[in-house]
Write a structure and sequence with these properties.
The chain is mainly alpha-helical. It has one domain: Orthogonal Bundle (Penicillin binding protein transpeptidase fold). 67% of the residues lie in helices and 0% in strands. The chain is built from eleven helices and no strands. It is globular. The termini are far apart.
């Protein structure tokens, strides 16, 4: 009986290894195809040349801290991927039999925003990991965060923190209050939902506040 169980487990491991290897190769090919069309350096330069691109120094600390707290609290300590979050999300997705629960770091999200669509697939996830590694190798953490804050979608046609701060509060990004900063930090998770439903938007803002408390940004 033990021998049979061992054989079954062995073949399950082999099958999973083969599946992962195929997905890994397909993800790498997707990544290579993307960066061969336009290099990472050229893509980043395109973003930086857009109207209203905002330097990190021109963004309030409350907003930066809110985003890090709710999106990727280990951002300054990992090399592009957060293994603990990935393991947790894999387990949750397996239990739910879905791909709804993500664990993308800020670096991975920048990779997706630069090159890929919103499709939820393991192939895209692997491809964005390769871009995240490239970002971490070629740019500082602050530069990656700056790119992220200028690429995010906030609903109502607002892309980037400058347009969002101006559109929602008629302010510049460096003049946001804590309330405004936490509200905006919560929107990109589901912009069409939180920006249209005041009650859900406030619930999301409270989640951001709690994350900031949890990770020591506010008391």
């Amino acid at each position: 009986m033990k021998r049979l169980i061992f054989k079954i487990l062995f073949w399950i491991f082999i099958i999973l290894f083969i599946i992962f290897s195929i997905l890994f190769c397909l993800g790498y090919l997707k990544y290579k195809e993307a960066i061969e069309k336009i290099s990472l350096q050229d893509m980043v330069q395109e973003v930086r040349e857009k109207d209203n691109y905002t330097n990190l120094k021109g963004i309030s600390d409350d907003y930066k801290n809110a985003v890090i707290s709710i999106e990727d609290h280990r951002f300054y300590n990992h090399n592009g991927i957060d293994l603990l979050s990935m393991i947790r999300s894999t387990y949750v997705n397996f239990r739910r039999k879905s791909l709804d629960y993500g664990a993308s770091t800020i670096s991975q999200q920048v990779g997706r925003l630069l090159y890929f669509s919103q499709e939820k697939s393991p192939i895209r996830k692997i491809a964005e990991i390769f871009v995240a590694f490239d970002l971490e190798k070629n740019y500082s953490k602050d530069e990656i965060l700056e790119l992220y804050l200028n690429l995010m979608y906030f609903g109502n046609g607002y892309y980037g923190i400058y347009d969002a701060a101006e559109g929602y509060f008629d302010k510049t990004p460096d003049d946001l209050t804590l309330y405004e900063a936490t509200y905006l930090a919560g929107l990109p998770n589901a912009p069409s939902v939180y920006s249209e439903d005041d009650e859900l938007g406030e619930e999301r803002r409270i989640q951001v506040i709690n994350a900031m408390k949890k990770y020591g940004y506010i008391d």
